[in-house]
Write a structure and sequence with these properties.
Blueprint: E1 3-6, E2 12-14, H1 16-22, E3 31-33, H2 43-46, H3 51-62, H4 68-78, E4 90-93, E5 96-100, H5 110-114, H6 117-128, E6 133-139, H7 143-152, E7 158-165, H8 171-178, E8 185-191, H9 194-205, H10 208-216, E9 219-223, H11 229-248, E10 258-263, H12 268-279, E11 283-290, H13 295-302, E12 304-306, H14 327-334, H15 339-352, E13 354-356, H16 359-364, E14 368-372, H17 375-389, H18 395-411, E15 417-421, H19 429-435, H20 446-455, E16 476-478, H21 482-491
Parallel strand pairs: 5-15, 6-7, 6-9, 7-8, 8-16, 10-11, 10-15, 11-14
Antiparallel strand pairs: 1-2, 1-3, 4-5, 12-13
This protein binds pyridoxal-5'-phosphate.
Length: 492
């Protein structure tokens, strides 16, 4: 059975189930597998395999304390008719293959993992004999919150609380969350940005006294953010699937390398691509795309992670992040599993807001390319790609495409490339509509109609008529109220 260890060295748990329930390690580190399993499918067998089949192999290899039947139950429950038949359409447009990860219920890639996390978690509870109610705390930059709410709504034995930045999400994202139904769902806007929300949630997780009081009430906290290994691993599957699709399409032969471009915020999605390569998918470059909050671009180029900078609110809000949690996992792997080095770096980040990594880690970063796109380049890219190919991208995916174009220009590298397409263009329809030359609307929700008519594409079910649904969650709180709100809710 695989062991899950804290990236900071303070805790290790036999089997994934315990790590998934716990969410974050007791020393505030993130759980990482002690060893990355090798993919148990030959590359030339990938072409033509069904998504669910690949997901079962990949997830089962990491979570080997789950039985084959348990993994199959989780995968089949998650990737059913909530998704299109192929689950993740792979579409060639312009110079790249777009991995359309946003075809689930909430129109962002977060559905890929948050559709399965409730299954993995409730199965973990059964397996470990955990007798407490699981209370999911989630900080969101917009998309995780809704996907987590949708995944956990009315799941017996769970309660879910979501915190989102009051002024940091799009109108559609906000409407999706505050209209959420389900007796076990709770949503609060916080006066602060995503980093404040994420730091607040991590603080609650490390409050042992509070954990004890909640335990007395029969509650145990867990996380639906990508700090939870149960969220990260399901994401590895779609990169493996994407590789198979490129073989099927004749773009590569089994064994050929590909590039993977990921619009990045918390570094979870691109880390999943890195895990896919450690499992055996041949990758040339991981292209890490940021918006104006380009702390990761600078880090990849210098080895210095420095959050002492202005925070920008952009039109790719799910990437408005300065503290990328999952980078900690990458550093752990690149350091060769040196948890004391990681603990030291993270404590520096806490105290000095900045750290520089060792030469060994810098060496390991060579397979990453970092770039960024500002709002005007992002919008321009959406317009250009639509005009040339009739392919519509959302703002996050457009950041990725622009950075990929810059990369190609800088390097001349024409390795076949996958771009992680992370959201439906309808989710950010005001920016997208204006970028393809449509007129200004008075109401933000009118852009969905406008975009639908102009492009001949239907509005995704979950996004239609959002402004007409009843608002069920009206709370707006200060960051320092987060702990008391959680305790109050869970007392009941
Ligand atoms: C969450 C999100 C991202 C960033 O993903 P990370 O795993 O946090 O790096 C990018 N695009 C969209 C649309 C998202 O919702």
């Amino acid at each position: 059975m695989r062991t899950y260890v804290s990236s900071r060295g303070g805790q290790s748990i036999e089997g994934a189930a315990g790590a998934i329930i716990r969410g974050i390690a007791s020393d505030k580190g993130l759980f990482v597998p002690d060893e990355i399993p090798v993919l148990d499918i030959k590359l030339d067998e990938l072409a033509g395999m069904k998504y669910q089949e690949i997901a079962r192999k990949v997830i089962g290899a990491f979570f080997d304390d789950y039985t084959e039947n348990e993994i199959a139950y989780c995968v089949n429950g998650a990737y059913d008719d909530k998704f299109p038949k192929e689950v993740v359409p792979v579409v060639k447009a312009g110079d790249a293959y777009f991995l359309e990860l946003y075809r689930g219920r909430t129109s962002a890639f977060k559905d890929m993992a948050l559709s399965i996390l409730p299954y993995l978690l409730t199965t973990a509870v059964k397996k470990t004999g955990e007798d407490k109610k699981i209370c999911i705390l989630t900080a969101t930059s917009g998309d995780t919150g809704k996907a987590a709410l949708e995944g956990f709504a009315n799941v017996p034995g769970t309660e879910i609380i979501v915190f989102f930045p009051e002024d940091g999400v799009s109108a559609v994202q906000k409407a999706q969350m505050v209209t959420q139904e389900g007796d076990n769902t709770h949503v609060f806007a916080i006066r602060g940005n995503f980093d404040d929300a994420q730091t607040g949630v991590k603080k609650i997780f490390s409050d042992d006294a509070m954990a004890e009081r909640l335990a007395d009430k029969g509650c145990k906290l867990s996380s639906a953010n990508s700090i939870n290994i149960g969220r990260l691993i399901p994401q590895v599957a779609y990169y493996v699937y994407g590789y198979g699709k490129l073989i099927e399409d004749g773009a590569i032969k089994p064994g050929d390398k590909i590039n993977i471009v990921v619009p990045t915020g918390n570094f979870g999605n691109i880390l999943a691509a890195y895990y896919a390569s450690l499992m055996g998918i041949p990758v040339n470059k991981f292209i890490c795309a940021s918006n104006e909050n380009k702390v990761l671009t600078d880090f990849i180029n210098t080895g210095i992670y420095d959050t002492r900078r202005d925070f920008h609110i952009t039109n790719s809000p799910s990437m408005d992040i300065l503290i990328s949690s999952n980078l900690e996992r990458l550093l752990y792997h690149l350091s060769g599993g040196d948890s004391s080095e990681i603990a030291e770096l993270m404590s520096k980040l806490d105290s000095e807001k900045c750290y520089e990594v060792s030469d060994k880690i810098k060496e390991g970063l060579q397979c990453f390319y970092g770039g960024f796109a500002d709002v005007s380049d992002t919008n321009k890219t959406i317009g250009e790609i639509y005009a040339a190919n009739k392919y519509l991208m959302d703002t996050h995916t457009a950041v990725a495409y622009k950075v990929y174009e810059d990369y190609r220009e800088a390097t001349g590298d024409d390795t076949p490339t996958i771009i992680a397409s992370t959201a439906s263009p309808f989710k950010f329809s005001d920016s997208v509509a204006k970028s393809v030359g449509l007129s200004e609307c008075e109401n933000e929700f009118d852009y969905l109609e406008e975009l639908s008519e102009a492009t001949g594409t239907a509005i995704p079910d979950g996004l239609a008529n959002l402004d007409k649904k009843e608002v069920r969650h009206k709370g707006v709180i200060d960051i320092d109220e987060m702990p008391s709100i959680v305790e109050e809710l869970l007392q009941k």
